TrEMBL record:
Belongs to the adaptor complexes medium subunit family. Keywords: Cell membrane, Coated pit, Endocytosis, Membrane, Protein transport, Transport. CDD domains: AP-2_Mu2_Cterm. Transmembrane segments: none annotated. It is found in: Cell membrane; Membrane, Coated pit. InterPro entries: Adaptor_comp_med_subunit, AP2_Mu_C_sf, AP_mu_sigma_su, Clathrin_mu, Clathrin_mu_CS, Longin-like_dom_sf, MHD, Mu2_C. This is MHD domain-containing protein. It is a peripheral membrane protein. Residues 188-442 form the MHD domain. PANTHER family: AP COMPLEX SUBUNIT MU. Its main location: membrane. It holds the Pfam family Clat_adaptor_s.
Length: 443
């Protein structure tokens, strides 16, 4: 499979998907049934509905085998989308197709997808299934293309008797650049690039780093006219090491990167530059993972002591490690307490801290956290008087935050070049944001 993360599924050889596609609710009731091959009987999918979906067992396994029939499925809210087969199929292709179908339905249903939306849009879903899959083979999955002739309410955005319009859609759907239509015009040519990283850090009670990695994505909002060709470069380790004679250039080593289908992979393999003709609007250009030289935006120094049988003393010192001109927002630190905690008295240098019984923790909220500063919170927790033989298993302190203009991996955009035959000069915007993924400190 090609590295494209959205759009049409591109494979080197045609791969047929399994027989039927099923939409099943949490009770095991079939909401949608679309068969592309007749080798899976009603008894087979009835067994899956009753033994797996309705029984709510082994939902974490994406593939189940029952009496020689394999069911590949994903769970989205209260709907289970399943593909069934008795043949040897490409499971990754099937899962990719199912997830892309969910993205497509959400774009039609206003961003939501649940059982209620399925019941209200039976006709639309069946029509979409017939368009995106032809004789069992994945076909058009481009939202922009499908919305031009499949719409809610039956009102089409084109005249099906207009041969010129139909020809344009056919060219876009089957051409080299199916994700972008010709003749796009914008009054103001702009492109926004957002580098969003989720940093995952786990610190032991002895203050040793047990885990540190970053899951990132590069989001693009394109409002460019015509058919522009974009070249995008980062401080990749291979590029940085080759730029000798230009001074020290910090480089990062990316793992598990995945591109949108518009990216020309052959050019990236040669010169490490991301070359692409972008879709119009917002899309995810690439995702990546980095495991080396991760810089934590915060340092936590906790101190938790049992003061007798009915009292717990807690203190936490938090330091911001990013630059002074950067301010983190929406900072929330959750300090867990024993289950039999009754009440707590808190004192915070900055922000608001209070004991929240519903979470069983002291929650410290800071709306704005400037760089290179240090804050502290103290809490005296009173425990309910009850006898228990079980020792308190201390859950880790967790933290959530948004840090703009900072990347935990050190990734930076080196350049963004845009070429179009009309030679206009677009406005370019580049933003960085680091968010907390799984940020924990054991106590």
């Amino acid at each position: 499979m090609r590295g494209g993360s959205s759009g049409r599924l591109c494979v080197r050889l045609p791969r047929r998907i399994p027989g039927p596609i099923l939409f099943i609710n949490q009770k095991g009731e079939i909401l949608i049934w679309r068969a592309y091959k007749d080798n899976v009987s009603r008894v087979d999918w009835a067994n899956f509905s009753s033994q797996v979906v309705a029984a709510k067992e082994n939902r974490d396994k994406p593939v189940h085998a029952i009496n020689g029939c394999h069911f590949v499925f994903i769970t989205v809210g209260d709907v289970v989308i399943t593909a069934a087969t008795k043949d040897n199929v490409n499971v990754v292709l099937v899962l990719k197709l199912l997830y892309k179908m969910v993205e497509l339905f959400r774009s039609y249903f206003g961003g939501t997808f649940d059982e209620n939306q399925v019941r209200q849009n039976f006709v639309l879903i069946y029509e979409l299934l017939d368009e995106i899959i032809d004789y069992g083979y994945p076909q058009i999955l481009e939202v922009d293309v499908l919305k031009r002739y499949i719409t809610q309410g039956g009102a089409r955005s084109i005249d099906l008797n207009d041969q010129e319009q139909l020809k344009k859609i056919t060219v876009q759907a089957t051409g080299v650049c199916s994700w972008r239509a010709e003749g796009i015009k914008h009054k103001k040519n702009e492109v926004y690039i957002d580098v969003v990283e989720n940093v995952n850090i786990l610190i032991s009670a002895k203050k040793e780093r047990l885990r540190a990695d970053v899951s990132g994505q590069i989001l693009v909002k394109c409002m460019l006219s015509g058919m522009p060709e974009c070249k995008f470069g980062m401080n990749d380790k291979l590029i940085s090491s080759s730029e000798r004679g230009k001074g020290p250039v910090p480089g990062i080593a990316m793992d598990d990167y995945r591109f949108h289908q518009c990216v020309r992979l052959s050019k990236f393999d040669v010169d490490r530059e991301i070359t692409f003709i972008p879709p119009d609007g917002s899309f995810e250009l690439m995702t990546y993972r980095i495991t080396e030289n991760i810089e934590s935006p915060f340092k936590l120094m906790p101190d938790v002591k049992m003061m007798g049988r009915n009292r717990l003393s807690m203190s936490l010192q938090v330091s911001s490690l990013y630059d002074q001109n950067i301010t983190a927002t929406s900072v929330m630190i959750t300090i867990p307490c024993p289950k039999h905690a009754a009440r707590a008295t808190t004192r915070a240098d900055y922000g608001k801290a209070r004991f929240e019984p519903s979470q069983g923790a002291v929650v410290w909220r800071i709306s704005k956290f400037r760089g290179k500063v240090e804050y502290k919170v103290d809490a005296d927790v009173e425990l309910a008087d009850r006898v228990t033989d079980k020792q308190w298993v201390r859950p880790p302190i967790t933290m959530s935050f948004d840090v703009p203009q900072f990347t935990a991996s050190g990734l930076r955009v080196r350049f963004l070049k845009i070429q179009e035959k009309s030679n206009y000069k677009p406005i370019k915007w580049i933003r960085y944001l680091t968010k907390a993924g799984s940020f924990q400190h054991r106590i």
